[in-house]
């Protein structure tokens, strides 16, 4: 059984001051696979102090020194690629297709940051003014358990490129992933105090990081409810915030869409990572004139989303992360039936032949209105809804009738029409005939899906502050 009994502070593995032991589970078997000793307030304060000590010298480093660090981090993550995949498969049931597509992006984040840093101008002139893009200071990076490796790399890469020092607080549910990441950071010979990693509970370590006056920036990916808590904690000291929060993303199938390709893509977006992604396309908007064809196409595409062992290459959907999430997802399936929706495929209960593990049948509801809770609330599991629309205007109205605004998808062979529709959708990202965003584009949400943007220049400048010097 794996025992993770350390934090990483000031360039060293240390035994935490905190004593709470939290079990780690394999969601495909429900078996305990390890335990993590959680950091507490004392550990958080030690990490903040280490990052604060490191900031003055690190913020004055030049481009080449930071690029060298980013290159070493990329190499270290690449060296541990198989270990990272194994951790994600065992710890939360990520399937092979997701791992092969997304895990290499972690090292790629450092490569992209290094390339950007090579051409980025930190000093500019405007009339008599010299504009200096200066590192903000010490940043707290708080990440969720799902795709934790990618989120960690994304945030660390931007902060390092900017010259900021960081305290990372990953989810306690992702301790195995974090273990591999921490070992990679240590192998990359990052200067002491620049990256500190403390795994602990949000209500303990997270609250310290988001309220402490020495933390000037918080980068967070997670739920909207936690994002609201972070905003309250950060308000007293006016911290800069990047919050990438929840979503209820629409996948709009326009009436000229090729259903043989558009429907499988829409389902793949909704079921991605076992339905556990903030940007999942969980609302499929279908033209009423082709509704029957869409529903038949959904049923025809479902065999590609077979549920089972995440290590089996033929598995399309693995388990949800925990018993708590298993129960939550099933509560929404029951709620959908109570609201009057109909199950097209899936439904309550484990898939046939799977007696153990937190497996949920990939479920698609029809007979859904956009006012039902299953159409408005983030379920975070493999549960989608099909909602009919009358025309393009109606599709846009339904797509925008949500408290969220993270991502949206438009499927049509008419690219000009797609752009006309996309420009009217209230979302940080709109994808046309694709399900993955491009990392040179800004990523983030509007409304209750968050504040600020990540990726490329937009992500780098989230850790910088423009300062004007006028002579």
Automatic annotation (TrEMBL):
Q: Which domain of life is it from?
A: Bacteria
* InterPro entries assigned: Ald_DH/histidinol_DH, Ald_DH_C, Ald_DH_CS_GLU, Ald_DH_N, Aldehyde_DH_dom
Residue intervals of the Aldehyde dehydrogenase domain: 22-468
In this protein, the active site sits at 244
Q: Recall the GO molecular function terms of this protein's record.
A: oxidoreductase activity, acting on the aldehyde or oxo group of donors, NAD or NADP as acceptor
Leader sequence range is: none
- What are the alphabetically sorted keywords of the record? Oxidoreductase
- Family classification: Belongs to the aldehyde dehydrogenase family.
Write down what this protein is called.
Aldehyde dehydrogenase family protein
